[in-house]
Amino acid sequence: MKLSAPTFVTFLIAVALAVIALLGVLVKTIPFVSENAFWILLVGFVVLMLGTMFKGK
Predict the structure, then answer these.
(1) Is 13 within a domain?
(2) pTM for the whole thing?
(3) pLDDT in tens, the chain (57 residues)
(4) DSSP string for residues in the chain
(5) Within a 13 Å sphere around the CA of 36, how many CA atoms are in the beta-carbon half?
(6) Count of domains for the chain
(7) Residue 43 lies in a domain
(8) Residue 19's domain spans which residues?
(9) Is 15 inside a domain boundary?
């Protein structure tokens, strides 16, 4: 399998999800995010992984 760099949009989505998860851990008052910060971060990493596995246009 040949990996490629993710597109800029894919990278931004992954970073946004990571920042949201980090805020959920640090702030602890964001209702849905604070309870599911680990899963949000995991989704961000999966998006980034898929962005590297599939060739972007």
Answers:
(1) yes
(2) 0.85
(3) 788 889 999 999 999 999 999 999 998 888 999 999 999 999 999 999 999 998 765
(4) ----PPPHHHHHHHHHHHHHHHHHHHH---HHHHHTHHHHHHHHHHHHHHHHHS---
(5) 9
(6) 1
(7) yes
(8) 8-53
(9) yes
